[in-house]
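Before we proceed, please read the two lines closing this message. Let me know whether the structure tokens fit the sequence:

…
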Amino acid sequence: MSHKTTENITAEQMESKELNNGETPMAKNSSDSLQTFTPKQKSRTTNEICSNKKKKARKDNCAKVESPQRHKPSKCIVDMEVKLVYPDEEEIAYEFLESTMSHSLESMCRSSGKTCSLSALNSSFLLDKWLQTKLKEATACYRQNNYSIAVKHFTEALEMCSNGPVLGTSVDTAAEIIPSVVSFIETKLVACYLQIMQPDLALSHAHRSIALNPSYFRNHIRQASVFRSLGRYSEAARSAMIADYIYWLSGGKEQSISQLIKLYWQAMHEEAMANAEAFTAMYTPVDDVLYKEAIEKAQDAFTEMNPTYTKYIYTDSEVLHLLPQGTDWSSASPPPHYMLSLGFKNKKDGMFLEKQSTKSLLVFIGAIQKLQYASFLSQLQRAKEESQMINQAVAELATIPYLQEISQQHAELLQSLMADAMDCLQGRREKEYTWHEIQKVEMIEDFILQLENRYLKRKKSQAARRQRMKIKKLQSAGLSQSAGTATLSARPSEEDCKDINAVPACDSSENKSLSSN
């Protein structure tokens, strides 16, 4: 099969000044050719792209920047995190007012006849004065790079939110504001721990900040930064993608921020693919509908391009995927879709993934598996890891309604999972958790499936055995018939027997004559 050479869209192409109106390049989908994207091909890495951009910006000739070692962030990624994860504190006093909760505060100010601005919304009539004093101390330490002291103050502020009032006055929107305030404190703790190079301590705070306020994009991008620091690049790529979508969904209009998130998203995606050893991926541009012919064509191309990963090839025929270089949420036309093909070195890995992708609760599959794994960690008495896993599952569940529409049945299941997860975190267990019930149902389904497969296998084996016996009988009958024919052909005829009987008589007469002579 003939197809065009694979082209990798790099981060430099996305940020190129030649792009029309700041739009990201879109992959062309030709009917007579197959254009694919594989991160494992020989292409420039994000580190090389950033160093090339830096060399173009300099007027003088400078020495070539060496590529950093694996797991050490490049200067390009660090620069992106400085702008996305650590914004200018002089401009943003309390980041929770950036989120969608600020709209309710502005409406409250309009109803009271006051002129509202960001600085006005930060005033003390909203927050409890003791809490605001503690936050000011924490913020001052943060600006002075005293991150350890800032952690202490933010932690104390978090305890104050748990034990006392958050708002100085009772307002109608308190139920909406309080989670955002607590989420703000959690996300500032994430930033502090990242600054002192302790991402393991930042992880649970990152999850909780999203669970409390999933509509604020910086919570997701900070979670991505924590995952990146821990070397969990695929999860970092997912968090960056969600951050980009949430930014657009919440009304973000600055194209530079969206482009920066997309660059970070792509960098994490490339790192994830580069560090994957058991599998590799290929993305093929497709229309909105997947045809069997297109799937077979993509798998043939995958086999030709990745011969090492052909023990099991799985092509997702149900879900269309997105890549950062072609995604523009604000565009009237839908973003280009891609068909994902995964190749594995181990057949069992591919079969397991395909089995998971066919489950009925695919929307919640990631969160449910994390909750089930947390129960396993609980049995091993690994409380810290259990808490982190539950918090991550809760963050994923809280984000689901923002990413897609869910049915009423799924909404009820979502509420049940969230409530049970919170009970589990607080040590309450009045009944069996929802994910345990789901696990039992899955075990029953797997058992029935095994019985069915066993029955079909036995039936197939019996049919093959009967076929072999039938062939053996036919062969035996054929051999018997051929042997009988050979026996009949070996016997002499009656005429031959007469001739044979006549020969001895002649011989005897001759002998008699000879004897007389």
Notes: The two ends are 97 Å apart (CA to CA). The chain has three domains: 1-35+277-358, 72-274, 365-436. The longest strand covers residues 279-286. The longest helix spans residues 434-490.
